[in-house]
Amino acid sequence: MDLTLPTPTTDHAASAPARSARRPGQPSASGRGPAHGGRPGELPPVHHALVAVALPGLAVSAEHGQLTGHGLEGVYQSGRRLLSRCRLRVLDREPLTVQGRLASAGRARFVAVVRAAADPGPDPGIVVERSRDADGTERITLRNTTARPLRLPVELALGTDLAPLGAVVSGRPGPELPATVHGSGLRWTAPDGAQAHVTADPPPHDALASAGLLRWELDLAPGEDRGIHLSVHAGRPLRPAGRAGLPHLPGARAEADDPRAGKLLEAALDDLRGLLVRDPGHPSDLHLAAGVPWRTGRAPAEALWAARMLLPLGTRLAADTLRVVARTLDTAPGASGRVPGPLRDAGPHLPPACTGVEATLAFPAVLAEARLWGLPEQDVTALLPAAERCLAWLRTALDGDGLLPEPGPAGPVRRAETQAHAHRAAVLGAALLEGCGRPGADEWPDRARAMRRRFRDDFWLDDRSGGRPAAALTPDGRPLSHLGGAMAHLLDTGLVAGGRHAEGLLDRVRTEQVARLLGGPALDSGWGLRSLGAREPGHNPFGHRAGAVRVHETAVAVSGLAAAGYEKEASGLLRGLLDAAEAFAYRLPEMYAGEQRTEGDAPVPHPAACRPAAVAAAAAVHVLTALAGVRPDVPDRAVALHPVRSAPLGAIRLSGLSVAGEPFAVRVSKLGLGMVEEAAAGLQLGA
After folding, report:
1. Which residue blocks in 213-315 are alpha helix, DSSP H?
2. Which among 204, 239, 274 is the end of a domain?
3. Which of 188, 222, 239 is the C-terminal boundary of a domain?
4. 312-339 pLDDT per residue, tens
5. Are both 196 and 255 inside the same structural domain?
6. Domain shared by 667 and 584, yes or no
7. Beta-carbon neighbour count of residue 113 at 10 Å?
8. Domain span at residue 455?
9. What's 577-618 look like in SS3?
10. CA pair distance 536, 90, nearest whole angstrom
11. What's the mean pLDDT in 161-189?
């Protein structure tokens, strides 16, 4: 979770809502019972919640399945809670829930039992199954497992406050609204005119609006099932963007000796489809929301990172995302050519960073790499002017030493991570301009060389252990020496024409030292890469930039280490990440605690991490495809394979990928030998 801070500019505010909290058991502002506890500004815990997502729909449930109106529980559409309470009673009692789990990214399933009065012994005779969908539908199925017919009184107590998600999170949702009987269900209307409708099939035998009750009398023969279907919507049924059968995220598959690889990829794609949202002004363009429940609004940096990691699945999502981001250029006064974005907390040692700068630097890099994967020429041509504006901004923002400063409270700060992003933009921007025959291509290799020279002179700190890169330079030029997972970006220079890697910010000797540090115990928790080293001042295993494992950085480290030839370190981080994914039922959160792994333990969840999160789900695709080392150059009709020779997951086959807009499948043997099994006609396999 990247906590965002307000900026003094007119950049878009973060989608994370205002936050406050109460003590456990303390009534909410509406007087309807307890919500989350903690200090004002603290997010409520969601690590145990079952979050079904199919944006703009969202359903947050506890494991017992009843919606009680407490905390975040409820069914949401477009950021508003349409249903906060949905309590089921059968035979005048609440069913005993024996299982609650996610059946898919967009659906939660609950199994409960009820004992009838005449049931002999402790065995329950009635099974109740509930399937709650993020699109606002719920099906309740009751099954009579006894040998006699039963008449079951069934009652649903419904209610809502129609509160915005931000108000719910802050503990100020407002009072529950009165209901009116409407058709075969109930309707609520908020003072601002917003409405929620619940319809039931079959229609209830009785509806009591004053209490929000719907009642049925169901007759069940022995072994018979009867169902009740509920639908909640704000005027019309919801059509989530990711369920329209669009080709943005096709059904790729991973078949490996380690079966967890396939499960991880399947879960990641399911989550990513649930996070797809449409651009309001251009509904044909889809992009990924950063994560739920906190960050469902526009987040250009995360959307671009996710689109970049998903390029092996095709270029459609990258094209849409780039168009969405391009339309935001120049909306912040005085920032010509820069993507607007809020500030983001950067941990205990650095001032907040601007996500807009990160997105601006990512834009030309993502476009350049998408072109190599086969982005159609007409899309490249249409997006080139925006990429050139981003590069023009970078040109003016670089200081005289070839480094990129960012504003800070005491003066400009030069972050190592930002220099890596800027260098990548320069290298890939040069390749993009040259490949498209655009002016200005010649200047960027020179600028990239200047960046490398200044970085190697100013950022490297020598010591007896081999040295380390500084995390940043202070306004007075003093290097900050703390170790952090953001160091992984120094290895991530990106692909250039011919499938080769460009020269990075570090020379070979220093790259080897960074690889050793990334694989060492200070940063490698055993579950992934810590955002701040375990022995650094201010280390906090739950700090999202102060020691927690951020899945995105771990994935960047895995791919960067593998590409640079440091397979031992890459394999160690990959196995730790896969072990963590298994513990999280393959739905990776954006982060989890950076506690040191010990035998027999499990990764510790962060209570307020987004789950699912776009970059975490995309990271699963990124690390698995990194094992094959697919490096395309579609403009030259070539593709190269550089598989990880150590084959850390054994033999693996990846299918359903896309190169040049056509299906692509690759196999890597246990010996680390790669073979293309399916590819576009005329695509040549290079070294």
Report:
1. 260-275, 300-309
2. 239
3. 239
4. 999 999 999 999 999 998 665 555 789 9
5. no
6. yes
7. 17
8. 243-686
9. HHHHHHHCCCCCCCEECCCCCCCCCCCCECCCCCCCEHHHHH
10. 56
11. 91
Walk across the sheet containing 472-473 and list its strands.
Answer: 414-415, 472-473, 479-480
The arrangement of strands across the sheet holding 50-54 comes to 50-54, 57-61, 74-77, 80-83
495: DSSP letter: B
Q: How many structural domains compose the chain?
A: 2
121 and 204, same domain (yes or no): yes
CATH value at residue 274:
1.50.10.10
Band (pLDDT 50/70/90 cuts) for residue 7 is: very low
In CATH, what number is assigned to the domain containing residue 152?
2.70.98.40
Residue 315: CB atoms within 10 Å? 28
Highest mean predicted confidence (pLDDT) among 32-41, 332-341, 627-636: 627-636
**Stretch 119-137: mean pLDDT, rounded?**
91
Residues 338 and 257 in one domain: yes
- Helix (H, G, I), strand (E, B), or coil: what is residue 526? coil
Residue 268 inside a domain? The answer is yes
- Give CA–CA dist 477/498, Å, rounded: 38
Quote the CA–CA distance of 409 and 144 in Å, as a whole number: 67
Span of 61-65, 208-212, 330-334, 452-456 with lowest mean pLDDT:
330-334
pLDDT at residue number 15: 37
CB neighbour list of residue 385: distance below 8 Å, 6 or more residues apart: none
Residues 97 and 166 both lie in one domain: yes
Mean pLDDT across 515-539: 96
Residue 187 φ then ψ, to 5°: -140, 145
pLDDT of residue 6: 33
635 with 607, same domain: the answer is yes
Predicted TM-score (pTM) of the model is 0.90
- Measured at the alpha carbon of residue 349, what is the angle toward residues 347 and 351, in degrees to the nearest 5? 70
